[in-house]
Amino acid sequence: MAKAFFRLQKFLRRTQFLLFFLTAAYLMAGSLLLLQRTRLVIQQGSRGTSANQALPVPEGMAGVGIADPRTLQNPRPSPRLLVGMDAMQEPALDQQHGPRWLVSRNSELRQLRRRWFHRFISDQEPMQTAGFKAMKHTAEHQGTYVGCFSDDSRERTLKGAVFYDLRKMTVSHCQEACAERAYTYAGLAYGAECYCGNTLPATTSKPEECNSECKGEKGSVCGGVNRLSVYRVEELRAGARRRRNVIYRGCFRAPENLTDTFPASLIQPNLTVEMCSEFCSKKEFPLAVIRGRECYCGFPTGHFSLHDGADGQLCSGTHNASSAAQGKYCLVYQTPVQDTRCTDRKFLTTKSKVFVALSSFPGAGNTWARHLIEHATGYYTGSYYFDGALYNKGFKGEKDHWRSRRTICVKTHESGKTEIEMFDSAILLIRNPFKSLMAEFNRKYAGHLGYATDRNWKSKEWPDFVNSYASWWASHVLDWLRYGKHLLVVHYEDLKQNLIPKLREMVEFLNMTVTEDRLLCVENNRDGNFKRSGAKQKDFEPFTQEMKDLINRYILTVDEALRGRNFTGLPREYVPR
């Protein structure tokens, strides 16, 4: 009996050990399978790029499938450049005397930049409310609560300025944001949205219908579904007035009939810029126009576009009654109020038949171009990625699936045959690579609106970044020129200098029509929320001579490729440098 019991005990021990071993083996096999699938997905993402797509590089770097950044850092002085698009499609027959090739994309570099891109998108989440933090008041809820109101997105009353923050919206943040821009009322909705204006909504609602908790403040109510918690922020305006920006736009020839051109006016014997600006801000107009004792408020229009400025000396006496009698010139100021004629946006009501990409190298102004397109067309733009910071800034297309076709176009930094041929057409935005590299490096370390520190620029990250990303700038353009089906090439510098003509060209490419007044509204709001803040070093030059030589070679190649496809070449300011 004891012997049988001993055998049973021995068997159970062996079984227990066997079960433990099988469990461990199962977990290890599952982990290996997961890693293998992840690797396969990454390889499949890289498979769309042609292995033969190449860039001109120094001779010492050719002949390999993966470009070594250390080789990129030390180019030899006499590179052979690839000229024209035909040569780009044919292999070199003479390795000694023909053009050398650098593979424009490889899995290692692709993974590196994707990892950088997505990692720093996620790192920006804590930074995305920096604008609100700067406006934080010492005392909470100083505004007067007015009540709960219905919110109709099609006929919104509080539409002067709009802010989003899905993580840290509070009542005081919204109040301060509206007060800084000279608005009287601040309304909160959905726990995360802030609206500003000077007129109360018409329809009141039951207090209990405003039941959404503020995302950044437990226990506080920030509106509800189609409901606004409205506060009067008049009490905050005195303290916030010091921070308001009234921008001098210049001296202009006055229209023949000012009362027909401008909807509101004021005559004051001792008129000052502050008095006129305050008056126009209360009326929710972005322009304050002064002619002698007369103050006019309105928008830029076809009759008064602010495109043809006059000599400032002609306006030097416009505050005097004697010069006012002449009435030929006027002073124009930009009030803190936002031009609301082009702020309404929505998703397409029907799926777009043409799948359009807004393609650029990172740092080339893609976000700014989206801002311009959205405000010009009235439709959201989509994104191949998801950036929470941009969503909080009002780019609601960030959360929409990039293939939904509910957006007017889709942002992408991708290149390669497969990624490009998914789109029916594309706006290809190109920017000076020196500026693009600096902009992307700033975004990497300081978000969309900040600047990298001196420590960042002087670290080893900067030369590594240039070596890895400079070739991507060129290969991105070459890939889209080679595989793109229908392209509109837009140079960032041209768009910045001639905004309305270039923006009209982009809108027509998207098969949309817009009014002249709407385009003037976009021009009046051209910066949006995307102008970098903080100290910027003057005459800052982070590029070494080796970096300049390398980038200049890529510039020449892209210029040749553009001309080979009958596009306008790169702006003259790109090269030489």
UniProtKB/TrEMBL annotation:
Location of the WSC domain: 142-234, 245-342
Entries under InterPro entries matching the protein: P-loop_NTPase (IPR027417), Sialate-O-sulfotransferase (IPR051589), Sulfotransferase_dom (IPR000863), WSC_carb-bd (IPR002889)
Transmembrane region(s): none
Keywords for this protein: Repeat
Pfam assignment, any one: WSC
UniProt KW Repeat keyword: yes
One term of GO molecular function: sulfotransferase activity
Family: Belongs to the WSCD family.
Stated name of the protein: WSCD1 protein
